[in-house]
UniProtKB/TrEMBL annotation:
Residues 334-569 form the ABC transporter domain. InterPro entries: AAA+_ATPase (IPR003593), ABC1_TM_dom (IPR011527), ABC1_TM_sf (IPR036640), ABC_transporter-like_ATP-bd (IPR003439), ABC_transporter-like_CS (IPR017871), P-loop_NTPase (IPR027417), Type_1_exporter (IPR039421). One of its GO terms (cellular component) is plasma membrane. GO terms for molecular function: ABC-type oligopeptide transporter activity; ATP binding; ATP hydrolysis activity. It is found in: Cell membrane. This is ATP-binding cassette, subfamily B.
Amino acid sequence: MIKLLRFLSPYKGRVRIMLVLMFLQMLGTLYVPTLTADIVNKGIINGNLKLVWGIGGFMLLIAVLIAGVSILQTYLSTSVFTGMGRDIRSALFKKSQSLTINEFNRFGPDSMITRCTNDITQIQQGYMAAIEMLLPAPIMAVAGLLLAFSKSPALALLIAAAMVVICILTVWIGSKAMKLFAGLQVMLDRINRVLRENLAGIRVIRAFNRSEFEQKRTDKTYEEYAFTAIRVNKIFAVLLPVIMVIMNVCTILIIALGGQNVANGQMEIGDIMALIEYAFLILMYLVMGIMVIMIFPRAQTCAGRVNEVLDLCSDRSGADTPDDCRAVVKAPKLEFCNVTFQYQGAEEPVLNNLSFTADIGKTTAIIGGTGSGKSTIASLIPRFYDIQSGEIRIDGENIASMSEENLRERIGFVPQKSFLFSGTILDNFRHGKKDVTLTEIRHAADIAQISDFIDSLDEGYETRVSQGGGNFSGGQKQRLSIARALVRKPEIYVFDDSFSALDFKTDAKLRMALKGEVKDAVAILVAQRISTIMDAEQIIVLDEGRVDGTGTHKELLANCAVYQQIAKSQLSEEELS
Ligand SMILES: Nc1ncnc2c1ncn2[C@@H]1O[C@H](COP(=O)(O)OP(=O)(O)OP(=O)(O)O)[C@@H](O)[C@H]1O
């Protein structure tokens, strides 16, 4: 929690005003019991009605002032802590965007969502409660005890004893709850994950008649959460009634012992009333402080989880060392030099000592069996992952020494799984290029063979796209994703199996139109279908992470066994000859 205090610094001014208002509120609250004693001792006992009305009116004025100050303080506190929560969320999101895919996967999207939402809300509430309730507790306790001491040292000691009992009880119970709080946040992560899987995979669940099984699975996660939350509440359910009993016993003892003192002439009746009010105030603030201690372990756990992301030192820096390849000749444009790559946690490398060169103005296609590492090659170009050894160079420069922003600015990436953002079709084109013009959009849509479809829609480019592009077919999503990459006019195009959902006719038309578009760029085309890549100037055949053959379709048909096998399985005798 202390580490996150830096997010309060933009609100220093308002925090100071809040503290002053809080101090004024405490002063007013502590003054009221003294006035109560005066109204009884000097007004009621002496039958001085004028004084009763005078002190009563003054008490009313103080009560109104305390209420006003309290409203102002609550307003300030809400604005400060809501702002702080927004700033932490924004920092966390920014950080999550800067992580490598491996680092991001350490937390996972579900945990990241919980951290960005519920965890920050808990932190926000924790800070708010700490300043509004925990901070005044010791001040009120000390000041209240001193004032009580001035009325009766013996009864002040009684109040102090009650305080000690309440503190011991709270620390004991709080320590039991602390462990359970940490578990609650992890369970929230799990609920998020199961819910996301269920909602995203709703069609598969229904198609396989797994609704009942999934229902049981979600119920189990809810039950686990509820069970732990109930255990926490059971622990605290004991605390508050016990505190109330202690407070009432304290009041009874003040009345009994104070009554004896009044009878002995050592105290006045008004002082007993003041002492009861002091005891009530001290113990009430103590209880409020205890409430905060209840919230605090959870907020502390959440702060730990948020700091875990914010403090993560990206291991990217290791790969960012400048290389001695800068001096290499300008062309060829994209090179893989002895690249070896292994996924985090995997037993062996996916790519082994892989080398190839992709020239400018030519299409380099990558084909191979499933799991041979084609998509992995595609995702290494924009540096979604860092390689373990070797180099990937663009214009002779190692991509590890480029800033990610500059590198990705030069690449038009079309992922294997098309993804559209919610908004309009136009918004999705703007994801490709912020200041894209309508002419550029139309041109890209023409090449991607999607313009006729968009024109046929009632709202054209303003048509709404639902979450993930759910209201478009697989082929339409693929073509929109391709068009989105085309508007960028990048130096390197990476199409990761991006034509798989297109029919053969559209696939051929698209490739033909693309030829002119990519003539000043490097085009990497990952595909499963031979028909998609047979026109490529260079085809790389991949087998278990190694290059098994390189050449044109004809060359490979003549001398690459793996390619021949793929071709035989997909092409007719006529096409093969
Ligand atoms: N994030 C990941 N973590 C661990 N292993 C992975 C990850 N992604 C892929 N792999 C593994 O790496 C290997 C290569 O995967 P890749 O997706 O590159 O294959 P591919 O040739 O594109 O396959 P396909 O044609 O089926 O899409 C596979 O064995 C896969 O299990």
